[in-house]
């Protein structure tokens, strides 16, 4: 996957996240952190080394939103797989 495709996916995730209003505090916190991670990745598009905590937050977000937001979960899973396959 090219960096342009990754950037496109990150932009799509950013838009998806902005449209979600979770009912619980944990969901709100996860989305805030995830939005910040995505913003950071977009700013450092040429870097292939996001912070390790970002991957843990990404996993936690996937687990948390799996039932309530399946489309977001699918997009987050794709991002996780892409980053993992890239050795990040």
Characterization of this structure:
This protein has 88 residues and is mostly helical. It has helices at 3-18, 25-43, 52-65, 70-85. The protein has one domain (3-85). α2 packs across α3. The longest helix is centred in the middle third of the chain and has 19 residues, at 25-43. The chain is globular, with a radius of gyration of 12 Å. The model has no long low-confidence stretch (mean pLDDT 79).
How would you describe this structure in keywords?
about 90 residues; mainly alpha; 4 helices; about 0% strand; globular
Major sheet: none
Shape: globular
N-to-C SSE series?
Answer: HHHH
Beta strand %:
under 5%
Number of helices: 4
Which blocks of ≥5 consecutive residues have pLDDT under 50?
Answer: none
Q: How many beta-strand runs?
A: 0
Radius of gyration: 12 Å
Q: Report the end-to-end length measured between terminal Cα atoms.
A: 14 Å
């Amino acid at each position: 996957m090219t960096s342009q495709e990754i950037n496109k996916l990150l932009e799509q995730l950013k838009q998806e996240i902005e449209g979600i209003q979770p009912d619980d505090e944990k969901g709100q916190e996860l989305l805030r952190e995830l939005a910040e991670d995505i913003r950071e990745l977009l700013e450092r598009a040429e870097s292939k080394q996001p912070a390790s905590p970002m991957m843990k937050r990404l996993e936690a977000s996937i687990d948390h939103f799996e039932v309530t937001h399946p489309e977001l979960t699918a997009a987050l899973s794709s991002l996780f797989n892409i980053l993992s396959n890239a050795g990040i």
